[in-house]
Fold these 3 entries.
Entry 1:
Amino acid sequence: MTAILSHPVRRLAGTARVPGDKSISHRALMLGGLAVGETRISGLLEADDVLATAAAMRQFGVSVTRPADGWCVIGRGVGGLIEPSRVLDMGNAGTGTRLLMGIAAAHPFLTFFAGDESLQARPMGRVIAPLAAMGATIHARSGGRLPLAVEGTADLLPIEYRLPVASAQVKSAILLAGLHAPGATTVIEPAPSRDHTERLLAGFGASVEVTATADGGRRITLEGQPELMGRTLVVPADPSSAAFPLVAALIVPDSRVVLPGIGINPLRVGLIETLVAMGGRIAIENRRVESGEPVADLVVETSPLNAIDVPAARVPAMIDEFPILAAAAACARGTTRMQGLAELRVKESDRLDAIARGLGAAGVRVRTGPDWLEIDGCGGPPPGGGGVNVHFDHRIAMAFLVLGMACRQPLTIDDDRAIATSFPTFISLMTGLGAQLETVGTAAC
Ligand code: S3P
């Protein structure tokens, strides 16, 4: 593992081409594999997590190739996958694992899933319960953890399932299983979570009905056993990756950064709404729709930020953005309060804990509870000067490298490896804007 020192910088400027959306990339490969014929994908994220899904689809007998002009998937049709001859090594990819478990549940063979230490610690019971109710048998380590085996069935039953927490991963696992079941599968979510699966399913030719529930949630009904047709897809740039250069441009002095082609799905823009409410100058230009997803160019300029209370209702729309929001809050004037964050404890790391410790290392005052976080902003550059343990979490690593750019003294992260799971070009992209990220050798654990 390599430690990286992030130096304070005077300004950031330029155009940042952020790689493709991770959530959409996983789903494009999976649905391409379940469609009939050829799916051509441009802008697919070529990062470890998505490459693990591509390898898994190949194990299921799907042709996944990478010609010069993008990615090409030749599907086997709904229910047409074959038994993998090896354990699927999903690395760090929680989304890939949970969604593929839904697909594996609908096939009459055994699929074995393994992952790295972080993935092995993540709860899979939330996916196991609905898939078991549909008729699959799942053998998992105690606590519903990886490694696990899904014993699927060709006779999956459609269900109506009420999600205990708003989770696009669990919703999508059920919908992908339901795709193979006769009749209608319905998922009711307590609050709307990212809807890329629903949009893509409709785009591939499935019938999906979405209605609002009286309590602010959504009811999604999918008709099972459609014939999905291969298609051409453009994956927008990932708003969750764009969040890092975006916040960097806000908190580093005299900066102006353009971020072209960023996905602005309304269920992903919670961070932008929050930063605008804090005083961030973020212009959203050239709004358009690509492959069924709203996209725009963002222009971001350095802004004095003021603390706010982030409404709990906004959490699902910015679930992955709290580490980088914490960096912005550390530079803001006043105390930023965030609540409803229990899910952050079961992400790639315990993010509430990792954020609190990292901010402490940067000399920022922070308080945290079971599901909340309060950050006393420095009203300008935080002290910095410390070392941050990133717990093999890509978003913790990138958030603290960004914070280091705006501190008075440099910040060090202990391990850069996880960045490759979602944003392999992060270091070169940020350096191109003016960041000074120095490799300081191999850190001890
Ligand atoms: C994702 C959903 C979110 C998010 C994850 C990607 C997806 O997880 O944190 O990074 O692609 O469906 P949950 O659905 O578990 O909240």
Note: DSSP finds 13 helices and 24 strands in the chain.
Entry 2:
Amino acid sequence: MSDPSGSNGSSGSSGSSDSRRKRVTTSDLIAMKGRGEKIAMLTCYDYLFAGILTETAVDAVLVGDSLGQVVLGHDSTLPVTVDDMIHHARAVRRGLQGPLLVVDMPFLSYQVSDEDALRNAGRMMRETGAEAVKLEGAADVTLDRIRLMVGAGIPVMGHLGLTPQSVHELGGYSVRGREREEADRLRHEARALEEAGCFSIVLELMPTELAGEISGSIRIPTIGIGAGSECDGQVLVLPDMLGLNPSFNPTFLRRFAELGEAARRGVDEYVSAVKSSEYPADSESYEA
Ligand code: KIV
């Protein structure tokens, strides 16, 4: 609704060219690792929060397929489609300036065939304005698809450890790489992803020591989530770290704000103000 007072109702974060941040590139992230500068990444799924992130110093933003759980209410990432990802990534793109924008390739969007994988990755880039895609795992076929995308000029971020699209194969959302055999496999897969052309790798839910060893063994930056302090950067799911999802309390999660509580309090106060006719006051109403 337009405001007769003349304001356009937006925070204005995306409108002014004066406030434009310099674009972060994939090479910038690699250079940050070289300098030992930590990379701060967050997920985002909509225009409003993208505008807020633009006003921060966050380096990279992921439209994650965690969208399925935290925004769409599914109990896993599996139901998320390419069209869902594109819909949300377009909204984020409209609000985001500066941080590198990465979009997740959802379940079965890159596994079916070379042609399908490249078409879907191309849609992600062309239709959303993202600067990179992210794929889970390092199976031989995934490595082939990564080479194909990188060969077509599409930057790819890898993802190892807990890979939520394989939750049924893994048997749950548990810490990976505690057994020697799996730890060795993860070390090997990280090198394979680097060789295939990934510019960075998310390491999810693994012991600090293993994530540190992997980070030290490759030149591209690792971005940890539940993988301890020795990664080159960190990523968290935005609604989780802002306290919008208070029932989700894994060990690795720190809540940096309590927006869920603030929102509930605000709505309660609004309801009582309406019920008691205290809102709207004269100062919040228009004269003839
Ligand atoms: O989908 C997602 O949000 C992710 C992050 C947890 C890295 O993959």
Note: Residues 1-17 have pLDDT under 50 and may be disordered.
Entry 3:
Amino acid sequence: MINLILFGPPGSGKGTQAVKLAEEFNLYHISTGDLFRNEISNETPLGLEAKKYMSKGELVPDEVTIGMLSNKLDEQAGKVNGFIFDGFPRTEPQADALDKLLDLKDTSVSLVLALEVGEDEITERILDRAKKSENPRADDLDEAIIRNRFQVYLKQTSPVAEHYKKADKLVTIVGIGSINEIFEKLKDAVNEIK
Ligand code: AMP
């Protein structure tokens, strides 16, 4: 099994690249942001809870997020070649939980691909994404919320990179350039461990 994590700030291109990598390496794509948005549109209790945090650009509490992720892993276990995690883990407890959940399935994180993009570029990209979308995400419409998401990333998520650096599983890639240029770099990094 290959299990990849796409790491990086909001708007760094994780979602776009995750879809391409999933297709290239035949992996199951799990985006916790998409799972939450799906729960919100179905107006489930989990969605209503998540919305309270997402609308402010804050993280959904770990127990809610880890529970949802664990259900998804159980649902797909044995059916797929591996996973690509997009937007998870975002905290140290989430990283520990992922290690344990994968260990229970006799597998582990193979590689963490970290995309590097700065705050101003991120803000511009997300505002542009909102403008071009017919159905923009609520948290993409307001610059203050976007900047808060970036700050949350710096404070709560970026330290998680250290967890994988220690395990020698972290590869950092500059996330500026065309989608295909960045995809080629990501693909090369994955092919090196195959
Ligand atoms: P994303 O689509 O990855 O940008 O996520 C959108 C929002 O969903 C985030 O700003 C958080 O509020 C929430 N979210 C997504 N993934 C996580 C996670 N792993 N932990 C906590 N909150 C998350």
Note: The radius of gyration is 16 Å.
